[in-house]
Amino acid sequence: EYTLRIYGEVSYSTNERGFRSFGSPASEAFKVLALGDSFTQAKQVSDGDPYYDQLAARRPGTFEIFAYGAGGYGTLQQLMVLETYLEEVEPDLILWQFSFNDLFNNDYALESSSSERNNHMRRPYWENGEVVYRHPDGGSAALTSRSYLARRLRIYLDSLRQRTGGTMEQDLPLDDLQFARAIETTRSLFRRGVEVAGTTPIVAFQASPLGRFGFEDEAFARVCAGVPGMECIPDMLEVMRQARREGLEIDARERDGHWNRRGHALAAERIERHLLDAGHLRSAASEPQSE
Predict the structure, then answer these.
(1) Predicted confidence (pLDDT) per residue in 112-171, tens digit
(2) pLDDT tens digits for 83-117?
(3) pLDDT averaged over the chain?
(4) Is this structure's pTM higher than 0.85?
(5) Which of 3, 30, 230, 268 is within CB 3.0–4.6 Å of 54 for a Cys-Cys bond?
(6) Which residues of 105-121 are buried (b: 16+ CB within 10 A; e: fewer)?
(7) What is the DSSP string of 78-134?
(8) Taking the mean position of all CA atoms in its chain, how far away is CA 228?
């Protein structure tokens, strides 16, 4: 239980393994496994408000939800979650949330040079078909990996550089060779996910703060184009932009780009529409509920 200055009072919980929602694996309902980063962890909203729970609420009795997200996770870490729990959950559908910052988190060189997408913590990277653990701080990792104060200082200095426009993200074009490498690595991870999932459909969509770089949609489209067998919802960010144009508050704008309850509701509505259009919900037991 806590109060966020922007989002208000929040009642947040996970189970002992970190799942925000963990249904019954034995359920005969349509089981959905949602994977992602901070947008799926959804610390800004209370239990029942994240997009996957609102998806279930739109069709009572239809879905059994399993949701695992963690702030700062890259695509490889999400894949590891899938590999760990797929056999136990046996989902009928995998919802895989992508963020633009995954391109940085999936590439050691990009994350190391970033002042905006580097959380200064050791993480796994996918290199030459293998999992390799590295710390993105390079030579200073000996200090930041052992001292919480040193890590917080690095994060504070990063925030200063962001406010003064001194980050490499400001000038790095999408066609940069580093981005191309990160996109291909991300494709490889999703392709691995498709292989691991077998006959279970994967539906991917993007959740990223709005108004940062201007090519987030194109980056996601390029990732999806290299992953046969994965369904992609291409316009989730445009759904959020349109809501803003209509005067709806779906996040905290420049202060925090994570969705509030309304943003999660719009995401749930768009996901439901895709599932219907793609034929995944032809046998849904009940009609969608109004928001």
Answers:
(1) 887 777 888 899 999 999 999 999 888 788 888 889 898 888 777 777 776 776 666 666
(2) 999 999 999 999 999 999 999 999 999 998 877 77
(3) 91
(4) yes
(5) 268
(6) bbbbebbebbbebbbbe
(7) HHHHHHHHHHHH--SEEEEEE-TTHHHHT-HHHHHH-SSS---S-EEEEETTEEEEE
(8) 20
Angle at 198 between CA 193 and CA 202, to 5 degrees: 55
**CB within 8 Å of 35: residues ≥ 6 apart:** 68, 69, 78, 81, 82, 94, 95, 96, 97
Task: Report residue 227 CA to chain centroid gap.
Answer: 17
Instruction: State the number of CA atoms in the 13 A half-sphere of 71 facing the CB.
Output: 7
Q: Largest alpha-carbon pair distance within the chain?
A: 57
pLDDT one-digit tens code per residue, 38-60: 999 999 999 999 999 999 999 99
**CA pair distance 199, 190, nearest whole angstrom:** 15
Helices (H) and strands (E) in the chain, counts: 11, 10
Contacts of 193 (CB under 8 A, 6+ apart): 79, 82, 94, 96, 202, 230
Nearest C-alpha neighbor of 221 from the set 208, 197, 205, 210: 205
What would the two tokens of residue 215 be? 């090519």
Query: If pLDDT is split at 50, 70 and 90, which confidence band does 290 have?
Result: very low
Please report which helix (H) or strand (E) contains residue 46, including its range. none
The rounded distance, in Å, linking the Cα atoms of 251 and 204 is 21
